[in-house]
Amino acid sequence: INGSEVLSLALGEQEAITIDSAAMNAYRGDLLMNRAVTGDYSDVILQAGSNILSWDGDVQALEVTKISRWI
Fold it and tell me: Cβ neighbours of residue 48 under 8 Å, at least 6 residues apart?
């Protein structure tokens, strides 16, 4: 994120994973996938405005979902 390596994911083919940085967990459906992730979840911070997300490997899609914790 923005030039810093934050997380490393060890996924097989055709797999998707959900990263919940607030809960510091990774999931595939209902299955906990924390062993597939290395790095510090507290570093998963997006800045206000534009951010640069990059990756290595055969990634076919990336989806970022904003979950606001503010009232």
Answer: none
